[in-house]
Write a structure and sequence with these properties.
Shape: elongated
Oligomer: single chain
Largest sheet: 7 strands, antiparallel
Mean pLDDT: 77
Low-confidence stretches: 1-36, 162-173
Number of strands: 14
Number of helices: 7
Distance between the termini: 15 Å
Strand content: 15-25%
Helix content: 10-25%
Order of helices and strands: HHEEEEEEEHEHHHEHEEEEE
């Protein structure tokens, strides 16, 4: 999965939108034959600003808005760029489908392809309609047909949302991140938290995943845990011994334990350490997940609808359902595929690599 940070806020395999960050001069130069600047109405702008500012805990202001087309060749979407850098893709009703505050690679604009118009066909599906009415992708590969039954259905569903953000629930196909099947091995009794040490258990599952799938960053001697083992061996007990207040829930405690574990027992060739963030930190968490790295999510016992109370889980995928955001997680209770609400989050712990 691309490392550029994306958030797909309207849950569907195909949520429609596009965006780009580039100054107006460069945009006009590269695609001067395209109808670009179109003033989005104030409700769309306000929706974009409030949603992304909340998720990223930052202040944003809109630089420009540009018209985008759906697969039916209708003007149904807008590209919004920010003065602070970054972009968002929104529908004509203001629903945000994807955004990035990372300006290293902007879809469409940085591809520098001469075309008649941009067509958005869902996350990472950027289509160009050339002046000769030929559809191509960002690598100039021809696309035979964009009006498939699947895309038409997804497009119609997205556009029918309007302001009803909760008219459908997220399905399995809308999850972004690591496949749930990879976490089923971390569910037997050795991975279950029987001792009120959810912090070390969630962190242990995160480190075990690194060891199994990214051993160039994290690896341990077999005395700690053999690679690809279905058992925790001494990984979690060793980690718990290094964690200040191992039965506590503070992100700083969990992070200190992980950092100490890596400093003392990591035999991988590269330097790895641990960071933490108090608060929700959706952008940081989803950015790590987008790069194929799980993170530890701390849950607040003050969240009224949180059945876990004060707890830690290992999150490896995310999705959205209208205005609500969710993680897919291993809960160290023997369940490797549980849905956790973003609204329950009180902190995250993650590796630097």
């Amino acid at each position: 999965m691309k490392k550029i940070r994306y958030l797909y806020i309207c849950a569907t395999v195909f949520t429609l939108l596009f965006s780009s960050v580039l100054n107006t001069k460069a945009l006009t130069k590269e695609t001067s034959n395209i109808e670009h600047v179109t003033e989005a109405n104030s409700s769309i702008k306000n929706s974009v600003i409030s949603t992304i500012s909340f998720l990223e805990n930052t202040n944003l202001s809109i630089e420009n808005s540009y018209q985008l087309y759906d697969i039916n060749d209708s003007k149904s979407y807008f590209l919004i760029t920010f003065n602070e850098g970054g972009y968002a893709i929104v529908t004509e009703f203001g629903n945000v489908s994807e955004y990035s505050l990372n300006t290293e690679k902007i879809p469409y604009i940085h591809d520098n392809i001469e075309c008649d118009r941009y067509i958005y066909a869902g996350p990472l599906n950027y289509i160009f309609k050339t002046n000769d009415n030929i559809y191509v992708d960002s690598h100039l590969n021809p696309i035979d047909a964009i009006e498939t039954d699947e895309l038409i259905e997804a497009n119609n569903k997205m556009l029918s949302q309007k302001d009803d953000h909760h008219s459908f629930r997220a399905t399995r196909s809308t999850w972004y991140g690591i496949d749930a099947s990879r976490f089923s091995r971390y569910t037997n009794s050795s991975w279950k938290n029987y001792s009120n040490q959810c912090g070390p258990y969630s962190a242990g599952i995160m480190l075990a995943y690194y060891q199994d799938y990214i051993p160039s960053v994290v690896n341990f001697n077999s005395s700690i845990r053999p690679q690809n083992s279905t058992n925790a061996n001494s990984l979690i007990s060793t980690l718990a011994a290094l964690t200040p207040s191992s039965t506590g829930t503070l992100p700083s405690d969990v992070a200190v334990g992980v950092a100490s574990m890596l400093n003392n027992y990591n035999i991988a060739g590269s330097y790895a350490t641990c960071f933490y963030s108090s608060g929700a930190a959706w952008g940081t968490a989803t950015s790590k997940i987008d790069s194929g790295r799980p993170v530890c999510i701390g849950l607040s016992g003050l969240a009224g609808d949180n059945p876990y109370g004060w707890h830690w889980v290992t999150a490896y995928a995310y999705t959205t359902d209208g205005g609500s955001y969710y993680y897919r997680s291993n809960d160290n209770h023997g369940n490797s595929d549980v849905v956790i609400s973003y609204s329950w989050t009180m902190g995250i712990v993650y590796l630097n690599q």
